[in-house]
Protein: Cofilin/actin-depolymerizing factor-like 2
Organism: Stylophora pistillata
Amino acid sequence: MFSLVKDKHEHAWAIMKIENNKEVVLKEQHGKLRSRTDLVENEEVFDDMKKKVEELQGPCYILFDFAYKQNSGTVKDKPIFIYWCDDDCVGVKEKMTYAATNSELKKQCNGFETFEFHDKADFCFQKISEDLKAKDRQ
C-alpha cells in the first residue's frame, strides 16, 4: 500500500486500523487525484478522508498524497504518514497497541513525512501544510 500512494500515486489516501489486536488492515482508500498539484482538490480530499476517519472511530494510520505550496510558491506533493489517536476517546491498552505498531510502520515509511496527532484541532490540512513548508529547504 505504501508504494501505491508514494510511488505510483494510485490512491490519494488509505486508512488502516488494527484488528484482533494483532493485524494492520486496510479499511478505506480513495482513488487517484485528478491533479497532484491542485491544492483545492487536495484539501477537499483531505477533508473527506477526515470524515472517514471519524466514521471509523478510534485510532488509525493514514497514508496521504499531500500537496502544499512551498515558500517559493511552487506546489509540491509529498506522501505523508499520519498516526491518529484521539487521547480523549481511547483506552490505555489500545493506545499502547497502536503506539507500538506505529513504531514498526514508520520503518516502512521511507520517503514519507510522518505526523502524529492526538487532538482534533491539530489534525488539519493547514497545520500539515505549514509544517511541511517549514521543513522545506530554503
Notes: The chain has a mean pLDDT of 86. The chain is about 35% helix and 30% strand. Helices lie at 2-6, 39-56, 92-106, 125-135. The chain has one domain: 1-136.
